[in-house]
Automatic annotation (TrEMBL):
It comes from Candidatus Moduliflexus flocculans. Residues 194-294 form the FecR protein domain. Gene3D superfamilies: Immunoglobulins. The keyword Signal applies. It holds the Pfam family Glucodextran_B. The keyword Transmembrane helix does not apply. This is FecR protein domain-containing protein. Residues 1-23 form the signal peptide. InterPro entries: FecR, Ig-like_fold. Keywords: Signal.
Length: 759
């Protein structure tokens, strides 16, 4: 409506209020117009407003004031004008009430029709058609009444919660049902519905405002009121704890959110976002608060419990004085991000004075939406069997002798890398079944880095690449050499070599191993032969000096070279050489990782084309069937991951991966709007400067402007202007809204979703 229309409407409402009753008002007044009379004065005298002089002209069939001459008779429609004013006033008042209830959104068709009819009624009145004007005003009142009723019906809506998680047996019972039913995850829960958990069971209930409650085992709660005002965007919910233990996590406090958790006979006023309500046998209620304050009233008594305080309400008694809750224990194991190779995870913590027991919770998710274990432990140690390898999180709280649960500890992460694969172990010398002519034997090979190595039970050190080379003293005759590797998960690999130390004179002595794995095609044979000894290689005679060095050029692959030394008496000594020429480096395949992330913990998964020693930045990677999965904790910024595979021949391949970890939100450096004050009806442009030192800014953001005393900020979208390096956005200020312009809300994200906000 325009200003002129509103002014006229107000005058008509005033006239309706001060006019005498219709029973005292004649339907019309007949007068003879004289030169001394004023038409404005007549309109004010009989119709309550001098501005109705033009309507009087039109009603009497006159087009302009010059047409009115002294001596003419004028009919003043006092009765019909009063009825018109009353009908229009009623329509305007009803429309005002409807708009206060949100009819502009909830009953737009009806309120728009009411406004159109009011405008039409005034236009008809101005043209002197009072009967039609009165009918239009009456119809406008009817449409406004429809809008009012529909807005009231739609404004407050019942909403539902959902069962967001469950472990074990969780049941619900609707108000009309006589028996309990099993629940399913994501199931809707409505007003007056009961939810209970049985033994060794847990449940999570998520409300539409983001608040959440967790029911521990053997708990019973009733969901009471759940209402949402769709105009004010307010939320109201009430939960009553009848039995057991309920932990609440509220999304916000005060303002437009009213979330109450009570027990029978106990009233609470909550200014806390996290607290626990417990109701035990004998109708004893305990409330433990972990944030803000809670007023607790029962049996004409009232206390206020602050953060990390609790109060107990026995049946028929007042709340006890606030008492301090016990803090969580200091954790000794697992340490932060500790890696376990065994399926058994040892938990250990320091004792807390006056503790009755400790509650340990373990989950595969940081927010504990899926709790794998919730264990009550009276001591300071607990062993848990991990179901599969991966990242896990745990937290604890302490329960005192009065059954009050203290606050949760920080959340700690640990890694279970269940390794059942034997460590890599390769022995290249001596060959199994070798006949040795000297007491000294070289034991050479390669072992998985960081694995413990023993030879015949004695510890042996390997170098940085896992290679080992040591010498044993043999006794004459046949004997066994046992080489054993044990990794961090206590997996064992063992290789045995049967050798024979022949103390008789040898025809051929080699100064080299008889088992060779190499990445070179040329293999050098070194050794010594006795005088007059003939030598054959693969049954082909060759000429060798007594001290010889002979170079073989071999193709790639596995092959056996057999040396025969033959004395003048035709005694034969056979020395087989097992040689593998491997010129091909192993191939590494890694499951693709994102180039950037805001999650610090990722799993590196891949495979290698052949048996090889694997390392990640010089740290050994355990592999099973040439496949590997290893948890990695990224550091902030760019991470360079070098995965190297080295086969027994020494061929190596390195695959380099790069990942950017960005957990830092952008920085909002400046925000300004085009107008400091709004009068209504204008467009206000805002400009926000922000910078991000990581992945870069997102293309859009959000902002909200408060105009004067308005409760609901005007919401707008910010768009990144790449050329100017700033975010730009604008909002339209509706008419009638005026006042100082304040940036009430800013939300800027980077491309990974890290958000900077101002409120």
């Amino acid at each position: 409506m325009n200003k002129k229309f509103i002014t006229l409407l107000l005058l008509l409402i005033v006239f309706w209020a001060v006019s005498p009753a219709s029973a005292e008002t004649p339907e019309t007044v007949e007068i003879v117009f004289t030169q001394e009379m004023s038409l404005r004065a007549l309109a004010e005298q009989y119709l309550g407003s001098p501005n109705e002089w033009n309507m009087l002209l039109k009603y009497n069939g006159l087009e302009q004031l010059a047409d009115l001459q002294p001596g003419m008779s004028l009919t003043i429609p006092t009765g019909s004008f009063q009825r018109f004013a009353q009908a229009l006033g009623q329509a305007a008042e009803t429309a005002r009430l409807a708009n206060m209830e949100g009819a502009g959104v909830l009953s737009k068709t009806n309120i728009d029709e009411a406004n159109r009819l009011q405008t039409s009624a005034i236009e008809l009145k101005n043209s002197g058609k009072l009967a039609e004007a009165e009918a239009a005003a009456s119809e406008a009142a009817q449409w406004a009444e429809k809008a009012l009723n529909e807005a009231k019906a739609k404004k407050i809506q019942a909403v539902s919660a959902i069962l967001s998680e469950k472990e074990g047996s969780v049941q619900n019972r609707k108000p009309a049902d006589s028996s309990w039913a099993d629940t399913t995850v994501k199931q809707d829960l409505n007003e007056q519905e009961r939810v209970r958990t049985l033994a060794a069971s847990l449940a999570g209930i998520l409300f539409t405002d983001g608040s959440k409650i967790n029911l521990n085992e053997n708990s019973l709660a009733v969901i009471g009121t759940m209402k949402e005002n769709v105009i004010r965007r307010s939320f109201q919910a009430e939960v009553t704890v009848l039995q057991g233990d309920v932990l609440a996590h509220l999304s916000a406090l005060g303002g437009k959110k009213d979330f109450t958790i009570n027990a029978p006979g106990v009233d609470t006023t909550i200014r806390s976002k996290k607290f626990r309500t417990t109701r035990s046998e004998g109708d004893v209620t305990r409330i433990a608060n972990y944030d803000g304050e809670i007023d607790v009233a029962a049996n004409q008594g009232k206390v206020t419990i602050k953060k990390d305080e609790g109060t107990k309400i026995e049946k028929g008694q007042k709340p006890t004085a606030p008492k301090k809750l016990l803090l969580p224990p200091v954790m000794l194991s697992p340490t932060v991000n500790q890696v376990f190779f065994s399926a058994t995870i040892p938990f250990e913590w320091e004792a807390v004075s006056n503790a009755a027991f400790y509650q340990l919770e373990i989950s595969p998710t940081r927010d504990f939406t899926n709790i794998l274990a919730s264990e009550r432990v009276s001591g300071t140690q607990y062993a848990w069997q991990v179901p599969q390898q991966g990242v896990y999180y745990y937290r604890m709280y302490t329960v005192d002798n009065d059954e009050f649960a203290g606050p949760f500890s920080d959340t700690f992460a640990f890694f279970a890398q269940i390794d059942t694969s034997a460590p890599f172990l390769s022995v290249v010398s001596p060959a199994d079944g070798a006949v040795l002519l000297t007491a000294d034997v070289a034991v050479r090979g390669a072992v998985e880095k960081e694995a413990a190595l023993t030879i015949n039970g004695q510890p042996v050190e390997s170098d940085a690449n896992g290679n080992f080379d040591t010498t044993l003293q043999l006794k004459p005759g046949e004997q066994t050499i046992t080489i054993t590797a044990t990794d961090a998960a206590r997996n064992v690999a063992s290789v045995q070599r049967q050798v024979f130390y022949n103390t008789a004179a040898q025809l051929l002595t080699l100064d080299m191993p008889t088992q060779i794995v190499t990445n070179q095609q040329q293999v050098t044979l070194k050794g010594e032969i006795r005088p007059q000894t003939r030598v054959e290689m693969n049954d082909v005679p060759i000429e060798l000096p007594l001290q010889f060095t002979h170079v073989l050029t071999l193709p790639e692959g596995e092959q056996t070279v057999t040396l025969k030394a033959i004395s003048p008496q035709n005694d034969v000594q056979t020395v087989p050489l097992h040689i593998i020429v491997d010129l091909t480096p192993p191939e590494i395949t890694v499951k693709e990782l994102p180039a950037s992330t805001r999650e610090p913990n990722v799993n590196l998964t891949g495979s290698v084309s052949e048996s090889a020693a694997l390392t990640l930045d010089a740290n050994a990677i355990p592999a099973q069937n040439n496949r590997f999965t290893i948890p990695i904790t990224l550091k902030e910024g760019e991470n360079v991951l070098n995965v190297t595979a080295t086969d027994p021949a020494g061929n190596a391949t390195t695959k380099t991966l790069r990942m950017l970890l960005d957990t830092t939100p952008p920085e909002i450096t400046q925000a300004a709007c085009s107008l400091p004050e709004a009068k209504g009806g204008e467009i206000i442009a805002c400009e926000v400067a922000a910078q991000d030192r990581g992945i870069g800014l997102a293309k859009t953001g959000k902002f909200g402007l408060a105009i004067g005393q308005t409760e609901q900020p005007l919401q707008g979208v910010l768009t990144l202007n790449q050329a100017k390096g700033v975010f730009e956005g604008s909002v339209f200020v509706p008419p009638k809204i005026s006042g100082r312009v304040t940036i009430k809300e800013l939300r800027i994200q980077d491309r990974l979703g890290n958000e900077a906000s101002r409120f």
